[in-house]
Amino acid sequence: MIRATAVGAVLFTVIVSGGCDLDLSDPNSPTEEVVFGEGQNLILVAIGLQAEAAAMMGPQIFVTSLAADELGAGSATFDNFKAADIGAELVAGQYLSEAPWAAAYRVNKLADDLLSAVPSANLDVGTRSGILAMARTFKAMAFGHLATLHEGAPIEAGIDNPDASFVSRAEVFAEAISLLEQARDGTIATPLSDEFRDDIQADGFDLEVTIYALLARYNLMAGNLAAAEQAADLVPPAARSEFRFSANDQNPVYSTTYNSGNAFQLRARQDFRLEAESGDARVEYWVSPASIAGANRTLDDLARYRDPTDAFAIYLPDEMKLIRAEVAARSDDLATAIDLINEVRTQCNATGEPAACLDALDSGDLPSEQAVLDEILEQRRYELYLQGLRFDDLRRFDAQRKYDFLPLPQTECDRNASAPC
Amino acid sequence: MTGRTRRGIGWSAARAATAALAILIALPQGSAAQQDNYRIVGVVIDSTSRRPLTSVAVTLTAVGIGTLSGSDGSWALAPRLAAGTYTVSFSRIGYETATREVQLGTSLTIAVDTVAMRESAVQLDEIIVTGTGAATQRRALGNAVSVVAGDAIANARASTVDAALQGKVAGAQIMSNNGSPGGGVSIRLRGTSSIVAGAEPLYIVDGVIVDNSSDQQINFGYRTNPSNRLADIDPNDIERVEVLKGAAAAALYGSRANNGVIQIFTKRGSIGDPRITVSTRATYGQLENKLPFALTPVEPDGTPVTRYDHQDLVFRNAWGNETSVSASGGGEQTRFFLSGNYNKDNGIMLGSANERIGGRLNVDQTVGSWLNLSAGFNYVRNRSDLLINGENGTGGILTAIVFTNTNVNLAERDPVTGEFVIRQTTFPNPLEVTERWKSSQTINRFVGSFQARAAPENLPSIEYRLGYDTYGMETDLFIPRGTPVSQTGSSTAVTRNQYLINNDLVANWTFGLPSLELTSTAGMNHTYSREQTVNASALDLTPTTELVRGAVQSASQSRFETTTIGFFAQQQVGFDDRLYLTGALRWDASSTFGESERWQLYPKLSGSWVLSNTNWWGEGSLFSEFRLRGALGYAGNQPPVGSAYARIPRYTGVTNIDRIGLVHLSSAGNPNLKPERQREYEIGFDAGMLDDRIGLAFTYYDQYVTDLLLTRPFPPSTGYASVLDNVGELSNRGIELQVNTRNIQSSDFGWSTTLNFSLNRNRVEKLAGNPFTEGYNNWVAEGHALGVWKLFDVKRDERGNVIEDDVGPVRTDSTVVMGDPNPDFQASLHNELRIGGNITATVLLDGVFGHDVWNQTVRIMDIFSAGPLYDRLLRGEITQAYRSRIQGITGLYLEDASFVKLREISFAYRVPDTFANGLGMSTLTLEVAGRNLYTFTDYTGLDPETNMFGTSTVARGTDFATYPNPRTFSFGVRAGF
Questions:
Q1: pLDDT higher for B745 or B845?
Q2: Which of B391, B421, B389, B426 is nearest to B405 (CA)?
Q3: How do B84-91 and B923-931 pair as beta strands?
Q4: Are B352 and B433 in contact (CB under 8 A)?
Q5: Distance CA B780, CA B773 (A)
Q6: Within a 10 A sphere around the Cβ of A120, how many other Cβ atoms?
Q7: Quick count: other Cβ atoms within 10 Å of Cβ A307?
Q8: Which of A303, A312, A418, A391 is nearest to A96 (CA)?
Q9: Which residue, among B9, B501, B627, has the nearest Cα to B209 in the 3D structure?
Q10: Which end of chain B is more exposed for a tag (fewer CB within 10 A), N or C?
């Protein structure tokens, strides 16, 4: 009997050990352990981060454009979209702020993954430098988006910190700028490898140029005029950096507008066309006249982002000129400001960017600082339509606007004990 | 399968042969004095009708060798034993257990006198298999276990086992969600114990855990597969079903037993000449009720128009047939049961059908005096032509007609081309769909088992079991070129391979002293499952092909594996046949749990006190038998298979322009994931009155589930949306009552009745985050039962009067909780009659009371100009504005769906054996039966027993274009040779 027991036990062990592993791994999705354990997998995360960063543009654009005066709600399906269109009070708990918030923090989480795993990864030093700079740049862009929309947001957030504390938007901008400066310094100290440039950095995306452009943009928004001017100067006029898309990776602005599966059906507000200076060629660059019955008003068609593979510029070249013009105007250097405004106004025949093809103005047309600033705001409206900047512009120039800030997402309020809701 | 002793379950359970065989046979024979091969034979009959009794378990209790009596009541045992006195016991569900002493001496063949068994309403001696291998008498159990005999399942004339259990188990809510041929049943034992991890019980066939999933592979409109995989088991093969309803009874199954356990035992061979049974019957199905279509022959403006009742186009009367052949028998060493069955069900909806072909071989082999080997092989091919219905209008049959104005003539064809004139209304013409689309599902399944049991005298018995359940399931959807929804056609084929393997090793030891009996059990169990799905689809099909071949092709694959290991030990102590105490522990680990929570402990304690066996119990008492019982136990429920890896933080692929990258999944990994944990206690009594002619069993239970799995939302600043976490709590409390009566017992007439009553109250005790909606309007909120209805009601003033404006009633500003899809109580009444010796009849009434069903079917008909409200508009009784108003008050479509169904009627005539013998048969029985013949209900839809969401835990009671349960008649012949 003892033999029978022993034989039984051995037999059982043999059979069981065939499928006895309690630490089964997921064959469908790579685990964090696998991803973090191999440099080549971190390269894939860096590529994924670029996809998430590009996708983050969609919600940021549609929410800022609705909350400013660029897009109107084409569908009455969502109450808060109708409300944001006319500037009515937003209903707590209804979807609106959620989308850009969640998208920004997905980028933040992926960037954090890379920032923690890459320094010790088995990768070329120039590749590590590139991935780290890229992670910091997109993290900064995520914070820039948050500081554009809200009075404050967490900058130390993650799975281990579900009750992340909030800081003011000034601190959020400061963190974004600091990240960009670290990214800049890192790429200078350790030049990017060919592997990074050829195999990681997406086609059309230029990391170094993006760092300077975003430094200029966020320093301006944060009120650091000299730093903004200095960074804008360092962006070569001919340089470009953009997110490109494909049939399997669609333009996120298209996804929220013309993609038939989307219920938002956002379209251009007609006052953009109707209030434009006569002869401004940028109007037809951006919109096409139409009479679409929206939720609150009649709307125009967009002329851009109608195709799912249209690229989205991370910055448009003339944004840098208008940043420099604004810095000059706010520093009492009206002549330089007017020169820069005229460079934008008189540009004709540009490719891949809007061109106004208007007449130049002089100090008679723009006699005061206020007049110059008003003109800069006007140029930004037509040059930088649908770039996610107008919501901050209206606030920065203290122009007539529907909202100063958007309410925090209800989902964050409900689940984060530190959220100031 | 009833012939088990307290010593173990030797000869009977089903299991398969491997290397263990050779090793165990090679062992030397156990000790023992001079042993001889004896042969013990006899006949068993019913004491009142004096007819032979079949399926009586005849067991040599000391050694655990048993057999079943044949249809002529004869039985034979062939033990190898030393001379001496031994006890033979005779037991059968519904009868008092009898025992006889036999003397084994010099004569090697012993004939036992005819045993006449007495019917009884109380079954304290019945043998129950508690799930560990240690069979025990009911009197020793502290918890209620329902047992359903194979006859009762066969008499139900249902095509699936689960449907055959309807109305027969107190405390089980057994709902046929869907009347599609091929089944579609959900079972809730003592209420719903889970939200995300499934609430269907664990099924065990002959000791082998089998899959009962109902995953939908292609969207046919039900959100789950219309059928569940228990449909692969042929009800004719079943000997007995035991139902363990909650944690107290099922604690030894550990982290899979929260929802209870249903154990199925199939028939096995017994000693004797081969006995062949042939049974065949024809079935005839028809639609029981009709939907109230708008047929007033005018348009709303008064213009005359022809209106069509589109139900007449898609429903039909359907014949089917079912044949099964079985052979069983064997000798002293080897016994077998062999069966084959063919079942064809042409559904009552156009284009639906199910065909099942299966075979089973159960073999038992005795080696020497103490080793038994058994093996079981079951193969089934189950093919269905499924219909799209429910919420999927594109290709939906019933769905399309409820969305179609009755002024459309769907049947009209172009006289030249033969094409339908109306090819599409809201959805494609259902008649064209049934002619040209193809949606089928084919299952090829093998369930095998092997068991080796060594039971040497005076030593612990050891049993090893291997179980294997594997199937391939292919679901296809073909939409031809040139249909209104797809000019270029599409074809999808989803193939799933399921594989489940179990290993069990159990030791049992019984030690008897005067007035004290100790039974110890220890064992371990291992389960591994693997599920792989390959999904292939094509668009722009190659002309004329129906396969997945076309200009645009895509494919994907997924795989889920789980492993569970458990160890258990149980000690039972019996004092003098009157007081029993049982304590048990199970220690469980699953690959689905986080590493820190991997091992889980589930204790159990139960007691049974047979007062009527105590000295002070009065002889002339009203109660001839009485016992009190109570049990407390814990069990668990694992995360669902789709969340098999939810403990691990994971990434997924994403495309950046044309490169593949990785991003994290939006649900975070939870390294602390653990099972849902149920605590259950139950107390009750079993009583026999009037000399055991009345049996009463009453149970009160209280279940509390903690660590309930829920999707806990994360603050989005973490970068994640949610995590699967053990954060909720819910409870079920209720009572179960079963009353058996033997009303009349004489040689000319027998009448017995069973009444089942049960009541359950479910309550969500704790959630993480906000209340949420499942299905369409099933609301999950603390303090309410799971899935209560939250709908718009009519607005009322303080005095309760309906507020009306000039259009009609005004609806509430927001949705309010209005009803409950869970029944208030259930009751069933089962009568069995025997007239003379040759005629038996059964009638089963099955009622469910107080559950509310949301009639979205009729609401959609009203909205799409086909329903009764629209008919009132046509008759000029209401205005268009009133109609729109009513359609918006969703709660007006919530109906009390209480019903009583005439669930089963059967009538069997056993032709006098002399006549049968003249035809070369030993027995011949003619049968007429009906199932779901009539429904007493105020519900206005097709069938109050319905759920579009299938086996869903929370989304219950939604009627939306679901296939109704048919009324079925059957006419059959059963012959024994």
A1: B845
A2: B426
A3: unpaired
A4: no
A5: 6
A6: 10
A7: 12
A8: A391
A9: B501
A10: C
Q: Given a cut of 60, is residue B226 above it in pLDDT?
A: yes
Distance CA B176, CA B889 (A): 28
Q: Per this entry, what is the length of chain B? A: 977
Per DSSP, B424 falls in state B
Task: Give percent helix, percent strand, percent coil of chain B, each to the nearest 5.
Answer: 10, 50, 40
**In this predicted model, what pLDDT tens digit does every residue of B629-669 receive, in sequence order?**
999 999 999 999 889 999 999 999 999 999 999 999 999 99
User: How far apart are alpha carbons B412 and B418 in whole angstroms?
Assistant: 9
> What is the DSSP code string of B263-332?
EEEE----SEEEEEEEEEEEEEEE----------SB-TTS-B-----THHHHB--EEEEEEEEEEEEE-S
Nearest-Cα distance to chain B for A115, in Å, is 15
- What residues pair up with B687 in beta bridges, in sequence order? B626, B696
pTM: 0.88
Backbone angles phi and psi of B179, in degrees to 5: -95, 15
Secondary structure class of B483 (helix, strand, coil):
strand
Partner-chain contact B19 A11, CB within 8 Å:
yes
Contact B721/A at CB under 8 A = yes
In this predicted model, what pLDDT tens digit does every residue of A109-154 receive, in sequence order? 999 999 999 999 999 999 999 999 999 999 999 999 999 999 999 9
- Name the DSSP letter for residue B802: B
Nearest in space to B404 (alpha carbons), one of B504, B336, B314: B314
CB atoms within 10 A of CB B863: 17
CB contact under 8 A, A414 and B659: no
Closest CA to B395 of B321, B320, B480: B480
Cβ contact, residue pair B718, A25, below 8 Å: no
Q: What is the pLDDT of residues A273-323, one digit of tens each?
A: 999 999 999 999 999 999 999 888 999 999 999 999 999 999 999 999 999
* Residue among A321, A393, A333, A383 nearest A358 (CA): A383
Q: B370 contacts in A (CB within 8 Å)? A: none
Residues 6+ apart with CB under 8 A from B119: B46, B47, B48, B94, B95, B96, B742, B745, B750, B752
Closest CA to B289 of B946, B958, B935: B935
Do B283 and B970 touch, CB atoms closer than 8 A? yes
Contacts of A23 in chain B (CB under 8 A): 591, 595
Q: What are phi and psi of B390, to 5 degrees?
A: 60, -135
Average pLDDT over residues A368-393: 97
The tokens describing A21, both together, are 């592993």
Angstrom distance (rounded) from CA B499 to CA B468:
8
Q: Is residue B720 within 8 angstroms of chain A, CB to CB?
A: yes
Instruction: Please count the residues of chain A.
Output: 421
What pLDDT does residue B388 have? 94
The B residues from 20 to 49 touching A (CB cutoff 8 Å) are 20, 23-24, 27, 30
Q: Encoding tokens for residue B688?
A: 């026999």
Cα(B569)–Cα(B582) distance, integer angstroms: 11
pLDDT for B16: 34
Residues B43 and B58: their CA atoms lie apart, in Å, by 10
Task: At A274, give phi and psi (nearest 5°).
Answer: -70, -30
Interface list for B 352-371 with A (CB within 8 A): none
| Other beta carbons within 10 Å of B724 | 21
Q: How many CB atoms lie within 10 A of CB B595?
A: 12
| Residues in chain A within 8 Å Cβ distance of B669 | 31-32
Longest dimension (CA), chain A: 111
Position A15 scores a pLDDT of 52
Judge: B664–A110 Cβ closer than 8 Å, yes or no: yes
Tokens of B58: 């005849």
Report ipTM (2 d.p.).
0.93
Of A26, A110, A415, the CB nearest to B663: A110
